[in-house]
Amino acid sequence: MNDVNVFLLSPEISMAGLALAVILLDLFTTRKSLVAGLALVGLVVPTIFSILLLDKRGDIGFYDALVVDDFSLFFKFLTIAVAGLVILGAQEHINKFKRFQGEFYALIILSSAGMMLMASVVDLIAIYISLELTSLSMAGLITFMRTGRSAEAGIKFLVLSAISSAFMLYGMALIFGLTGTTKLDGIALQLPDQRLFENPAMLLGILFMIAGFGFKISSVPFQMWVPDVYQGGPLPVIAFLSVASKAAGFAVLIRVFYLAFADLAVDWKMLFAVLAALSMFLGNLVAISQNNIKRMLGYSSIAHAGYILIGVAAISGVNADGVPLGPSSALFYLATYAITNLTAFFAVSAVSAKINSDNIEDYSGLAQRNPILALSLAIALVSLTGIPPTAVFWAKLYIFNAAVQSGLAWLAIIGVINSVISAYFYLRVIKNMYVRPAADTSKFMPGVPLGIAITVATVAVLVFGFWPPYLLKVANDAVAGMIF
Amino acid sequence: MQAIRDTAWLNIIVFLPAAGAIVLALALKDAKKIRVWATLVTFATLALSVIMYVAFDRSSQDFQFVTQRNWFPDFNVQYFLGVDGLSAPLVLLTALLGFASVIVSFSVKVRVKEYYVWLLLLETGVLGVFTSLDLLMFFLFWEVELLPMYLLISIWGSGRKEYSAMKFLIFTIAGSASMLIGILIIYFSMGTFDMVQLANTPVNAAVFSSQAVFWLLFIAFAIKLPVWPVHTWLPDAHTDAPTAVSVMLAGILLKMGGYGMIRLNVSIFPEVAKQYQPILIGLAVVSIILGALAVFRQKDLKRLVAYSSVSHMGFVLLGIGSLGTVGLTGAGMQMFAHGTITGMLFMSIGLIYERAHTRQIPELSGLASRMPIIAIMMVLAGLASLGLPSMSGFISELTVFVGTFGQYHVATIIAVSSIALTAGYILWTVQRVLFGGQSEKASHISDTTAIEMIPLLVMLAMIFLVGLYPSIITDYFKLGIEPLMGRLG
Lengths: 484, 489
Hints:
heterodimer, A: mainly alpha, 20 helices, 2 strands, 73% helix, 1% strand, globular, B: mainly alpha, two-stranded antiparallel sheet, 75% helix
């Protein structure tokens, strides 16, 4: 148990190695497509290591700090897939980064390594380090546009991320003071046998940690950075941030609360339920008035954090096999949300590359300029709304199911109401694309790599929309195989 | 016959229009070819539906042409299609109007390809609603109809089309949300979406009361039917929709509401339906009378027919509210009859609009002398609408009244009085639009062409067929209604 088995860390190590290799290659070649090719093909190595780790499920290493289980592998595969799609989809945008293209790939890959680590560690200090690895890489990436807005977004992200990390660290220190350990299973054993509200130190510790995680998953009230960062940051980076970073944040959140603080579940259940409701309402209501599609997707991302938090709050429901419904529905939601949001962002970046505008009004007549692109974006938006037969519909259904089974029927109803509200602003984009006439009717096509990325993501949305059982089984297994 | 019932026949009917839409979207460019293809696809759907209707075993109350597969086992969601006596005529009606509306749409000149793609998808959506036997699939198809309808109105409509389309969308989505909550509560309480199973076991909604679920579902269907006071989207949507979409909307989309009420509200919650019977009857009477009165104020021809639809669909609710074999059969007949009659009315109005470029009654006059054939068609449709014996409107309304009178004398008498109102506004309108002195607008217009006559004649044939030989649909509806009676006790 206490041996340092490097093999258990091989996906992350190979990720970091890939990042270095990309930077090195970038030094010696001027052909940027070669760098992109290496970044993309190189992802095969961590994928293979992750596949090999499937045999090592149940192993714990690095002095009980790192676990290999279905849960961590679920997020490893998800992160690698998202990183690959984002690198593919970034080709349209990459020229705006001028000579910093190698760094872009390296940082995306490094940040992915951090996210993969986040899902695999069960020690507060390791959690903190992997979080920082992710956040610092992201802060750098956000400034890549080298415009005022982009720099502002990057600084905003960096400062708020630092503040939230500070809070989280303080919370972790309090928990360490109470329990004398940083290991999640140790904390679960050592926590004082009191209700959450009876022990101020425990309450503060947990609240501060929620502040740290809340920043990552962009839930209310830690969502202030979202709209500006989404508007100012480069599109591929935002796509990555909205999907992979959120997923990793939820991975840690679920691991910590379902493992270390499981005994307090009845107390924090309500807390997350309220945060979920607030995030949904704030995200969806403010999104209505947005005219910039990136900002709108930012608020939509806050709202979706709310939907997924329902799964975290749904502590008591179990399915027929005894698998907790809440976490598995959250995982299922994260995966479907990832492909759907990527589709939307890829389509937006294809449009943005052509018309140089993120204004929803400028999407008028897109259906005539490029019917397939418009259809992809429409499918993504319909999926985000939660209209069947698309992937997120099933995720919403499943997460509402978890809520009702856990006695949170009111939260499920709030979720349905919010889905109706969200129809208004998602469908508004569809309306512009299909109903309004185009000012400029010239046709255009996105480049081949982005085209492939859009096609893959759209097909995934539809495949999971018509045939969700497999993905759901994977999510169930991931939670069932989670080492408690 | 049994051989046909054992095939995947129904699946083909439901998905043929959608498959046709995909082929059309990918392969066809030329507007003429698109029209021919859409006509062929909908005609094939119609032909298959007619065969299904004939092959339907009229000695069995069970669901037929059933396909049942596990779709999403974790949720107990099935792919479950089938028809019984209640849905078979509605499938036929949908295929009939789907075919007719494609021909009616030959005059569409803008973005032809997209238009037919949405129109065909719409048909699949409605066919799916009528044939789904799994609640989640039912909901899924119910939603499929939403987006095509919204786009059809807002792109190819006239007047305040974007406003009307948005109004339609918001009303429908509000209804869908209400229905989804209801469906989920049923699922959480009973652990199944299987409509056949649900209808055969008493539902005890553990999470909420059955009463709450009943109303959650009812709201969705009431918006669709539409029932006063949630009918206000209909006149706007009708007025601004293109002709074929009006035909589809009045002809079959409204029927989804009535069908849902019978299939879900009455068959799954018979006890609750009985408890609230007076409210259903009350809403029906208000819709019938207010709809009929509102007609008199209308100047736009389509708006006028839209309000008359509100009134006529009130009869459907009245029949449902009677909760008896005769009344419910009448409701089904009224749905079928109204589908063909109103379809025909909207078609003739569409032809008038194409020629005179106005639907305002004061601007139209003396059309009969310029376009005698259209005038005859419109008069016939009008007569059917006001319930002239020998036509389908008469027999279906009569059946509803007979079914209701035994229990609710006063309500039925009030409802019957609307017949006089209907006769009044129909004859008055026909007189103003078709007869009288010729207006300027009418001076240079011509009569209909042979192709335009096809859908009108098909509708007319159905109206007389059902009017003279009603058992061609009543036999089916009775078959679908009788199992309900057992549950209603």
